[in-house]
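Following up on my earlier message about calcium ion. Here are the inputs again, as you asked, copied directly from the submission form:
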Amino acid sequence: MTGFFGRLLRGLAFASAALTLLPLQNAHAQSTYTQTRYPIVLVHGIFGFDSALGVDYFYGIPSALRSDGAKVYVAQVSAANSHEVRGEQLLAQVKNILAVTGASKVNLVGHSQGSPTSRYVSGVAPHLVASVTSVGGVNRGSRVADIVRGVAPVGSVSETLANSTALALTSLINVLSGGTSLQQLPTAALDSLSTAGSAKFNQRFPAGVPTSGCGNGAELVNGVRYYSWTGTKPMTNVLDVSDGLLGVLGLVFGEANDGLVSACSTRLGKHLGDYRQNHLDEVNQVLGLRDWFSTDPVTLYRQHANRLKVAGL
Ligand code: CA
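Thanks, got it. Here's what our run produced:
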C-alpha cells in the first residue's frame, strides 16, 4: 500500500507540477508563435486599401499576427494600377520598412493583385525579400478581367453573363472603394490582370509561377521562398453583401475559383491548400463574415507566420 500511495503521491505531485508549468509554457509559446525573423508586409489587391473608416483591408489580421510577436506592416499602393507601378510603390515602402526596423529582408504576403505586386519586388530586388506568399493571387490572370476588358474569346461567354459580370464587378468596387491619393489607372490594372497581360508579366517575373497546370511552382528562387493558398468557394455566407456579386462572377470560370480568380491562377511556389473561402473571405471580409464551418482565415495567416518562423524567415 505504501508503495501504491507513494506512487500515487509522486504521480499527483508530477501532475501538479506539469499543470503549473502548462500555462507558463502556453503563454510563452503563444507570445512567439508568429514571431518571424523578418517583418511581415501585407500587400492589398486591386481596389484595396490599408484601412478605410478604421477597418483593416486584412480584417483583424495584423493585430492577430502582432499579438504573438510578428512585426507587421500594411503596404498602401495604388488601388488600381499596373503590377509594375504598384510594385515600384511597394519597393519604396519595403526600403522604408527595412530602414525603420533595421531588418535585412521582409516577408511579403500579397492578396489578389498584391501577389504579382510582391513578385515584382522579389524580381527586381530579391536580396530584400525572404519570402513571397500569394493569397488568392492573380498570378496567371483572371477571366473576369478578360471579360471586363472585352478580350474574352468571342462566344466563350454570353453577352448577358458578360454584362452582369461587369455590373457585379462595378458594384463590388463600390462596396470596397477606399480613398487614396495614389495614382489610379483602372484600365492599366485590368490589362495587368488579364490572362494575356499576366503571361507577359510572368515572362519577366517567372519566379515561383507554375508554367502550366495547377500544381506547385518553384519553391526557392534567387534565395526567395514562394508559397500560396486560396479559396475555391464563391459564396460562403448569405449575410455578406459581397457574396451575391462574387457568386455571379464565379459563374464565368467553369473551373474551381474564389469568385474572382481561378484556383490554378493563384498557384505560386509551395501550394498550401484550397479552402472554403471566396476572394474576400481570404482577407476575412466583409467584417469577418465567412463560412463558419471552414478554417478561420485569420488562423491561416497565423499558421503561415509560424511556418515562416520555423523556416527561419
Ligand atoms: Ca465573406
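One observation from looking it over: Residues 11-29 have pLDDT under 50 and may be disordered. Hope that helps, and feel free to reply on this thread.
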